[in-house]
Amino acid sequence: MSFKENLLKKIDIKKMAKKVIDSTGPSESGRRVDKATMARLLGMGPYVYRKERDLGLYLFEGKSEKPLILVLDNDLPFYRTTVEDVVLRKSPIVKEMISIRNAIKILNDSDVLVSKKEASVKMVAKECIDLLQLSYTESDLDDIAEDGLTALKLEDSDGMVECLSLFSELLGFEPPPVQLRVKYHEIVGELTLQENGKYAYGPVVIYSLENNKLRMIEGEIESDDKAGQEYFKRVVTGKTSASREGEEVLTYLKRRVSYK
Question: Is 0.70 surpassed by the pTM of this model?
């Protein structure tokens, strides 16, 4: 696959991982983990599926003597043990529960438990991403910028949003704080959070889904900077000129990645 395809796959993996993490919660919350999305995520990684009794197991052999085994249930536990041991602990039959030794294993899995829930999802996502070839050349960046420019000229909003998502992944750009979110606009930028809860956001790239305008503010907008926030609103509405517009924004993003 091309660099762009691999980068899009990485973005997809991160989105799926977030969706699964967002579906987890304390056992008393009654929330059910998104098993369908988790299964899709596992299918993108180096995991072998096995069905044992009523359990869906995913094995990662690795270099260890005992495999890592994830049980696809509401806790998403990863165990470092054998398949037989996991089956005994998670889906015992009556004759297995009679043994005191087995009963102890069933009641306490801390000796083989590696992770649960969010930590397990992050582990799977990392393994999936590690399989991707994500090194790139200047030509790869040119291709992304050129695709973005074509999308802008054709007023292809989906293509433009994809271009911005690719550059955002490469630059670590994030969606804006709540105060700077604008309906029908795709906005990404560099977010710096401070310990007191305040933020600095910038540079900021703004794409209007309504009128196909691509703009950028090069400076930072701080959470307590009312003048800066007002300037941001004027740029979004086109009442004030942006630092860069159109093709200049794509050129800036490409160069920023190159110098990163």
Answer: yes
